[in-house]
User: What shape does this take?
Amino acid sequence: MPSFMRQINIIGRCSTMVRNDALADTGLSGCHYSYILTLCRRPGQSQEQLARHIYINKSNVTRHLAQLEKNGYVERRQSEEDKRVTLVFPTQKAYDVQPRVSEVVRGWNRYLTEDFSEEEMEQFSAMLSRIAQRATAAVNKEFEEN
Assistant: This one.
């Protein structure tokens, strides 16, 4: 039996492929959805805050933000309070595409779980939440140590 982490990784890679296809005409790649959703909900985060919120290392965040900025989805500005900090804001183009990105994510989630009963969904969600809490606690502990 394959490990559950291998299965989670397969689901994640397939999810990225589905988002790549569904968002191909927007110039967004499958990995950009979390940036669009997060920044539209909380504009003006620092790049470091964004990295911590979506659990992606800072160098990847910088690279992805450069692509998003080039394609007109985000704007980066130096913080007035601390010139060492770069704040990230969604553009109108990001706000315009956000409903579509959300629907792609919801549609994929519905597809993956369409044959689950309500009880199975509650149990599955609870178990995933417990795993996610342990994973984020481990990573947050690592952030605090650095």
